[in-house]
Specification:
There is one protein chain. By secondary structure, the chain is α/β, with parallel strands linked by helices. Helix content is 29%, strand content 28%. It is built from 9 helices and 15 strands. It has helices spanning 45-52, 122-144, 162-173, 188-194, 226-234, 258-262, 277-290, 293-299, 308-317; strands at 4-12, 15-23, 34-42, 68-76, 86-90, 105-108, 113-115, 153-156, 177-182, 198-201, 217-222, 236-244, 266-269, 300-304, 323-327. Strands 3, 4, 5, 6, 7, 14 and 15 form a 7-stranded mixed beta sheet that branches. Strands 10-9-8-11-12-13 form a 6-stranded parallel beta sheet, with helices on both faces. Strand 1 (4-12) and strand 2 form a beta hairpin. Helix 1 (45-52) crosses helix 9 and helix 2 (122-144) crosses helix 7. The protein is globular. The two termini are 19 Å apart. The model has no long low-confidence stretch (mean pLDDT 96).
Length: 328
Amino acid sequence: MPTFRGILLTKTDEVFSASVNALDHASLPVEGDVEVAIEYSTINYKDALALTNTAPVVRRWPMVPGIDGAGTVVLSSHPAWKTGDRFILNGFGVGETHWGCLAETAKLKGDWLVPLPAGLTAKQSMAIGTAGYTAMLCLMALEKHGVSPASGEILVTGASGGVGSIAISLLSSLGFNVVASTGKLSEASYLKALGANDVIDRATLGAPGKPLQKERWAGVVDSVGSFTLANACAQTRYGGVVAACGLAQGMDFPASVAPFILRGITLAGVDSVMATLALRETAWRRLATEIDGAKLQAISREISLDQTFAAAAEIMAGTLRGRVVVKL
C-alpha cells in the first residue's frame, strides 16, 4: 500500500526526535475500527508539549501527535460510520497513547468521532479545535450555573490564546460583558475586535494575592491555573462561577476556601479530553451556529505539516496568537 505523510515522534534511550516521515499503513494502530483521511488538524498546547518534548504527554512510543482532526471516513467496521462520512475528532488520548491526526491517514475508534455539523467546514472545525470546543464547554458550564449577560462582567484569562480568543468571541456574541486578561497588551486591539469590552494586564492576577479580594467577576473562563486562578476566585462576586480548563501558568492552585464558603462561588472543572459524546455533540452543534465566521478567520491561520514545529515553539514561548490550522 502507498505510504502517507505524518509527523513521527520517537524516543530511545532518552534521545528524542520529531520529524515528518513517510509512514506505512501497516504501522497504523490495530486498536481502531475506522480508517480516515485527515484533511485538517491543528496544534493545541498539549500538542506543543509533545512536539517539543517539554512534558511527558506522550505515553507510548513511537507516536504520531495531533489530538484534533477532521476529514472523511475511508473504511469502517463501526456500525455508526460508513465510507464518505464527515467527522471531527478531539481528545480521547489520541496523540498521547494512540496515533493522532498530524498525518494524512489515521485509524481511530468510531466511538470517539463526532459528525461534522452542517454549516461548518473541516477547516473551520480545526480553526475551532479542542481550544474552541473547550471554550464552548466553559460557556455551557457558566450557563448551567445560572450566569447570564445580566449577571455582570466575565473574565477571560489567557485571552490571546486559542481558548481565550474563541471564548471572547462566543461570549460577546451572546451579549456578555467580557474583560480579557493577557500578557500581551499589544494585542488589545485584536482582543477588542473579538468582542472584549476591556483588556487588563495578566500581571494583576499572576502573583500571590489575598484570599478574598474586591468582588468583580460574575463568571470566569480560566485556562491559566496557579495564582491566576486563585486570584480570579478571590475576585469573583457572590454566587459567581469560575470555569477552569487549563494550566498555562501551572498545575498548582494556591488558594483559600474563603471564596467558596463566604461568597458561595462555584469552581467548575471543564474536561475536554474524555467528555461524553452527548456533551461533545451539543457543543459542536452550538459552535456551528454561534461562532462568528469572520472572527474565526481573524483568530486562525493555515500552515503546512512542515511548519508545525515552528508553531509549537511559538506556543511554548507564549508568542502565538489565536489558532493555527494544519493542512494535510
